[in-house]
Amino acid sequence: MRASRPRDWHDEPVSERYGTETPEDREAAVAAASLAIQRGSLVLLPTDTVYGIAADAFDHDAVADLLDAKGRGREMPPPVLVSSATTLDALAVRVPGYARSLVEEFWPGPLTLVCHAQSSLQWDLGDTRGTVAIRMPDHEVALEILERTGPLAVSSANTTGDPAATDADQAEAMLGDECAVLVDSGPAPGGEASTIVDVTGDQGRVLRLGALSLEQLNAVLEPLGATLTED
Q1: Do the Cβ atoms of 81 and 136 come closer than 8 Å?
Q2: Which of 29, 37, 65, 219 has its CA at a distance of 20 to 30 angstroms from the CA of residue 1?
């Protein structure tokens, strides 16, 4: 595992930066990001909420590097982004019906679900206590990368304690020296982190309010006789 090194904010970032303005640029960016992930490197990429720092979810060392880059310990495991809602059942078990209703309404989009993880998966995201946080982003470039790489461990592109990056320049300033590739797709369209819902119980709990409000979530569930509570 690569040891985390002190950052000097005046250092020149070492990541290769790719734009997505033209179809050719976009293909080059997606290809470079996918190759870097496959080689075990970290990548900065856009999502529909904020910019993220990504690693192969099944590469133990890469996930450890991601946590090091952000200044996090194993007690704060990263969420996993997927390219399709059908991947939910490959990563999670005992997904309740109300959670599937939320997926149908809000995926792709700014909703992260904390689920019971498939015990057979060969990954190490940190101290997850048998759970995994899963989201399908509503961002074409992010989805193209995910389609080529498979599930990615992705956390907001910021060092712990700093605001999440909402554009490529902010992401590069904070984490550019930790990543092999930066995909610049302009400002993140959402600019606000996803809402996180724990769906491991009979009744869901909102762990973090973000781009989706409790009212928006419950508007989907109330006709089904279910509601979410807020921690």
Answers
A1: yes
A2: 29
Q: pTM above the 0.70 mark? A: yes
Retrieve residue 173's tokens.
């300033």
Give residue-wise pLDDT tens across range 73-101: 898 899 999 999 999 999 999 999 999 99
Quick one: DSSP state of residue 4? P
| Strand runs labelled E in the chain | 16-19, 43-45, 52-56, 80-81, 92-93, 111-117, 131-135, 152-156, 181-184, 195-198, 205-208, 229-230
Q: Indicate the angle between helix axes 214-221 and 97-106, nearest 10 degrees.
A: 120
Using alpha carbons, select from 220, 170, 231 the residue that is nearest to residue 198: 231
- Length of the chain as a residue count: 231
Phi, psi of 152 (to 5 degrees): -120, 135
Cα dihedral 229/213/190/48 (nearest 10): 40
Q: Which amino acid belongs to residue 160?
A: T
Locate the domains of the chain by residue range: 16-230
Segments of 163-224 assigned E as strands = 181-184, 195-198, 205-208
CATH 1.25.40.340 holds for 16-230: no
Q: Is 197 helix (H, G, I), strand (E, B) or coil?
A: strand
User: What tokens appear for 223 in the block?
Assistant: 């006709």
Pairing of strands 205-208, 43-45: unpaired
